[in-house]
Amino acid sequence: MKELLLLAFCCGLTAAVLAQSTPQALTVKGVAIDSATNKPLGYVTVTLQDAATKQSIKAGLSKDDGSFELKAALGKTYQLALVSVGYKSKVVNITSTGPDINIGKILLPVSSNQLNEVSVTAARPIMKQEVDRISYDVQADPDNKALSVLDMMRKVPLLSVDGNDNIQLKGSGNYKILINGKESALVAKNPSDILKSMPATNIEKIEVITTPPAKYDAEGLAGIINIITKKNADQGYNIGINSRFNTVFRDGYNINGTLKEGKFGMSVFGGFGSNGTLTTGSGSTENIFASSTNISQTGTNTQTGRFHYGGTEMSYEIDTLNLITASVDLFGNNQNQYGPQFSNTDSLGITKQTYTLQNTGNSSFTGFDASLNYQLGFKKSKDRLLTFSYKYSYSPNRQFNDNLFSSRFNYPQALFPDYQQYNDAGNKDHTLQVDYASPLNKQLSLEAGAKAILRNNYSNYHVDDRDTLSQQYITNDALTNDFNYHQDIYSLYNSYQLKLDKWTGKAGLRLEHTAISADFTSAGVMTAPSYSNLIPSVSIQRSFKTSSINFGFTQRIQRPGIFQLNPFVDRSNPTFISTGNPSLKPELDNTFELTYSNFTKNSINIGLSYAFSNNSIQNVSSLRTEQVNTKMDTVTYTTFENLGTNKTLGLNVNTNLNITKQFTLGLNGQVNHVWLSGTFNGSLYHNDGFTGNAFGNIRYKFDSGYALSFNAGFFSGNVNLQGKSSDFVFNQYLFSKDFFNKKMTIVLVANNPYSKYNTFRSNINSAEFYQSSFNQNYYRSFAVRFNFRFGKLNSQIKKEEHGINNDDTKGGGKSGGNSGG
After folding, report:
1. Cβ-based neighbours of 208, under 8 Å, separated by 6 or more
2. How many whole angstroms separate alpha carbon 755 and alpha carbon 758?
3. Would you say 175 and 158 are in contact if contact means Cβ atoms under 8 Å apart?
4. What is the pLDDT of residues 671-711, one digit of tens each?
5. Pick from 557, 578, 558: which is nearest to 568 by CA?
6. CB 227 within 8 A of CB 179
7. HEC string of 384-404?
8. What is the pTM of this model?
9. Which of 185, 183, 175, 225 is nearest to 205 (CA)?
């Protein structure tokens, strides 16, 4: 099996030799020593910095005997910085002026707070394992100037991106994405739409929270993805400009900046661009067993559109104990599509029905967030904080489709008229939260808080049929509804963290009460029963000198989102109808994690997980017979249902190898075995199988500022209750050049140059029918990316330590489009 072979290759790789420094006039030598054992320390990152600017001049690693040697130009005042995971960082001022300087032994004490004492860019580890999460330092990855955030996610442990740009966490689409620890309307609907348009230079790091503590809402079955944006600032300003031109997805522009003046700080980012003009093919074949009927459809679809996004975070320090912060984020996407589709129905080789459908549509999505936070500190302890937060989110989504039939055979206009669809859907959220954090002593700390989410999901839709005689469109009352779904969640949480010399533990409980009501104007009022949940979470970490072992257990709730609840009936393809299910209930998931991490010269992370849930939400299809005027017609009806059990056993491996100073290699892979079972439409279904993915990246950096990179990956597809989807392979070539002391970078990108299209295939195998379908996606593209930075800022804009994280609705919905280079 492809994914197993790739993962075996990942596990079998080993590191190679260290690079040697280029000879210069000044030579600095020394030996790194463990202060507790008095033994030499190998693989300590040693950086020679300009004493005035703190800019790194030369960097290297200590040998197995602890010795190191760095060479640089004479004539400057230098300082030496030593950094090693598991030890306190140390800075040594160099006072000698001779050409050969021997610092002697430098003692490094053990520390549980890694890399906090000194900022040494060259020494930043790309990955870090904490007690309840894995973080990927995007700014430490040299490819951040060349890739989008979506591309960068392929490198992050436990994350993958398939051929349709759907993001998955541990092979699952059940997760929540946060921006700076907060739910964001920017990524509420199709997260890849915003992430593929945002350059990775805007991102500080990406966190994968595998065992969310009690402070987070109890939703997101597989975990939480937290994207942290850049906010570097000191007195002054910093501005970055990014742009791209892609042969398929066309232009894209981005600007980001930070400003710090006295007690006021602000960071901003924004961008706009094109989604390209894309013409792709699609089709499906369905065999209905009972009537020996075959339905085949083929067609093309042309899409074009543009996007824009922006955001700002502001802070004002009233004094050392009082802080006010605010943020505003906005994303907009407008898409037009049109294309013909031919449908043919036959039985035993005899044609029964044909038609051609011309579908023209427009969709517009907007995400808006605004938040305000007040943080109060206490004189006796800087780590004791009380935070009050408010957040408002609004994300309207409007959709229109105009459907015109032609070339009809046995498909009369009187029974099947032309029609138009309208759907105005979205959600409005108000969130109030209070958080309290305090150390109880040197080892034990407390977190507690309360939260209220007042959520209103809505969908107002109708279908207008064209009258045969007047040719005017008349509203079809049977396909019209105004839907309002109110979900109010009230919660309390309390957690404790115990930090000892080698052990760290975090445990907590979260109590949530959910009140639901739904209003259908055409069918009266439906009130769903309220329910309460008590959610535990436990994380334990055992730290060694350069490694750690983590164990985690948590329960998670998966509440259905508006995409799954929305009763809007999508009839843009009248033979294959899809809709949401407002009667969906939440599912409860139990997750166990065991992880080994080692971060030295070469990092490796290996994790084993097991998760199971009952009453899982599944996307399922069945045959339905519907009466249109006086004629009965059979359609395939797809919706969501609470069905059966979902069990997943997974293994993941991630490693970054520094073969030499110039040559690096990274591998990220995982394999899952999925078991699904459930009863639907009177039939019992079982399905299981392996899913997996592997991503590899190779980079070589030349001394002249040139760099070459190659990225490649494999994604095995999904296993669903009624079927599976196909494999996907991709590759990417990058060539970059730095200018003006690394302030400007130009990157040439070639994505999948061997084929214009990728064909994504899936199948559904039910008791009534078998269906296979395909969708083309643009595969080959070439791009030029430009990145320019100016200004000088070093420290961080101060921000609140705690804030709102609405991670409670089902994420990972279908993501359209491609990453676009």
Report:
1. 133, 134, 135, 136, 156, 157, 158, 159, 169, 223, 224, 225, 226
2. 7
3. no
4. 999 999 998 888 889 999 999 989 898 989 888 889 999 99
5. 578
6. yes
7. EEEEEEEEEEEEEEEEEEEEE
8. 0.71
9. 225
